[in-house]
Amino acid sequence: RTFRDAPDAKLYLESELSFPIVVKASGLAAGKGVVIAQTKDEAIAAVDRMMAERVFGSSGDVVVIEEYLPGEEVSVHALTDGRSVLTLPLSQDHKRALDGDLGPNTGGMGAVSPGGPLDAEGIERVESSILVPTIHALARAKRPFRGVLYAGLMVGRAGAKVLEYNVRFGDPETQVILPRWNADLASVFRHVAEGRLDELGAEAFQWDSRVAVSVVLCAGGYPGAFKRGDPIRGLKEAERVPGVVIFGAGVEQRGGEVVTAGGRVLNVTGLGKSVEDARTRAYEAVAKIHFEAMQFRKDIGQKAGRAARSSG
Ligand code: GLY
User: Fold this and answer.
1) What pLDDT is attached to residue 312?
2) Distance from Cα 217 to the centre of ligand 1, integer Å
3) CA atoms of 163 and 155, how far apart (whole Å)
4) CA 175, 150, 34, 40: dihedral to nearest 10 degrees?
5) Global pTM?
6) What is the pLDDT of residues 112-121, one digit of tens each?
7) CA distance 153 to 160
8) Which residue from 161, 165, 135, 163 is spatially nearest to 150, judged by alpha carbons?
9) Adjacent-strand bridge partners of 162
């Protein structure tokens, strides 16, 4: 439910609800506008902070109170020409700043693909019960959509539920999806733009069988305040590690040097025959890179690797 004033929101919280529950500032709040309230008192305090104390300014003018969804998050990217969808392999972001999914939320500290809590049947269900109905609903609403549809899903006991939609590629998910896609991307995107997805040939469906793991290297302090302009060393050596691709993110060329220019500085993607192999390659390359106060997670892909081993 959505609320425009605190007394209504609190009245709702006093009704028969089960906890934990999620209280969200509807506007942008730099990733800090979501409170998972364990109790009614915590939820009421969150509403007060957002609506009465206005800690997020006008971003807290509207507050959303929603069901808490326990489970595992996964990103599903699909291309759509407005009529049909082409679902890409699953990927998983690692949103928290610290190992073990601890610390504050970030834009993404690393990703793995393929990987996630859905098997082929689960992906088909997402396609038929979430993605296709969304595309058709947009068309019916006279807002036909062609492009990338990226669903952030929570997969729990009740199946997959949508947390959010984006109409762009995910970052850092893209850095593990595109290096595995052996298609002519310009041709695929042209088919999307021209509404001809059904005419794509078999070559558009060729995927590298290797697993990709990408580690994000961040500036010290990120996701809080961080410094820019530090020289980055070791890029050439890191690129020479077999199966490694490096993507610049918050970087800049300054007088012949590559320097840091953002919170998330580089993405180091390793491709390997297993999650473990991909991880080893990515971290071998990471070890060759250096800039002042560089920080990164050491456990990217670890959970996916464990899941892959236990499923045989
Ligand atoms: N991976 C999170 C995002 O792109 O929004």
Assistant:
1) 61
2) 16
3) 10
4) -130
5) 0.90
6) 999 999 999 9
7) 6
8) 165
9) 153
Nearest of 25, 105, 34 to residue 57 by alpha carbon: 25
Asked if residues 105 and 96 have their Cβ atoms less than 8 Å apart, the reply is yes
**Protein residue closest via CA to atom 3 of ligand 1:** 170
DSSP result, the chain:
-EESSHHHHHHHHHSS--SSEEEEESS--TT--EEEESSHHHHHHHHIIIIIS-TTGGGGSSEEEEE---SEEEEEEEEE-SS-EEEPPPBEE--EEETTTEEEE-S-SEEEES-SS--HHHHHHHIIIIIHHHHHHHHHTT----EEEEEEEEEETTEEEEEEEESS--TTTHHHHGGGB-S-HHHHHHHHHTT-GGG--GGGG-B-SSEEEEEEEE-TTTTS------B-B-HHHHHTSTTEEEEESSEEEETTEEEE-SSEEEEEEEEESSHHHHHHHHHHHHTT-B-TT-B--S-TTHHHHHHHHHT-
Other Cβ atoms closer than 10 A to 270: 30
For residue 116, the one-letter residue type is G
pLDDT digits 0-9 by tens, 140-171? 999 999 999 999 999 999 899 999 899 999 99
Band (pLDDT 50/70/90 cuts) for residue 308 is confident
Ligand 1 midpoint to CA 52 (Å): 30
Closest CA relative to residue 205, chosen from 176, 184, 191: 184
Q: Whose CA is nearest to atom 5 of ligand 1?
A: 170
Q: Give the number of the atom of ligand 1 that is nearest the alpha carbon of residue 172.
A: 1
Over residues 263-306, the pLDDT tens digits come to 999 999 999 999 999 999 999 999 999 999 999 999 999 988 88
